[in-house]
Design a protein that fits this description.
The chain is of the alpha+beta class and 176 residues long. It has helices at 67-77, 100-107, 132-141, 144-156, 164-173; strands at residues 3-7, 20-25, 30-38, 44-48, 54-56, 58-62, 88-92, 112-116, 121-122, 125-126. Strand 9 (121-122) and strand 10 form a beta hairpin.
């Protein structure tokens, strides 16, 4: 089984337990991504944001032919609790699979695609997307190491993840 993982944030530069084969490629599918999830470290990380603008994400083939093993490796890398069922997204490419992601996967001769599927999170509310003003206020309110960590995160996210929030953060805070 030929399996790929999609990425748009720290997974790119910190793969850890994920068995990436080769390097991350920049010609991934268009996915609605935004800086919309306050992570445990305080940074405003990237997440799928269904009402966000689409950007071309990165992707890498995985050195496993087992979809359950690939999903488990991604779950561990993202530190998603085992009881949480919504943290890893997957698409198995088959005769009945349709849509842009299926087309992209077929063009790249993939049998399956996985990705981190954690939703936006703001003000401790899972599923809540901050407004751009709230996002900037959150980042501007961080101090010391936490602020530096948040800035480093934004600056390490690949440039092709060029979202409206990222442009506003750069304009107003000078980050990234």
């Amino acid at each position: 089984m030929n399996i790929a993982c999609l990425g748009w944030g720290s997974l790119i530069w910190k793969t850890e337990a994920l068995p990436v084969e080769g390097s991350w490629l920049t010609d991934g599918p268009q996915v609605p991504i935004e800086f919309s999830r306050v992570s445990d470290g305080g940074e405003l990380s990237t997440a799928i944001c269904l009402n966000g603008a689409t950007v071309p994400v990165l992707w890498a083939r995985l050195a496993t032919d087992s979809l359950p093993a690939a999903c488990e490796a991604l779950r561990q890398r993202e530190q998603i609790p085992a009881e949480r069922t919504d943290g890893v997204g997957r698409l198995v490419v088959g005769e009945s699979a349709t849509g842009p992601l299926s087309q992209w996967a077929r063009q790249n001769q993939l049998d399956a695609v996985i990705w981190t599927a954690l939703p936006p999170r703001f003000a401790l509310l899972e599923g809540r997307t901050p407004s751009v003003e709230e996002a900037i206020a959150w980042l501007a309110g961080l101090r010391g190491e936490q602020q530096q960590h948040a800035r480093d995160y934004i600056e390490q996210v690949p440039a092709q993840i060029d979202t409206p929030y990222r442009r506003a953060i750069k304009q107003q805070l000078g980050w990234g």
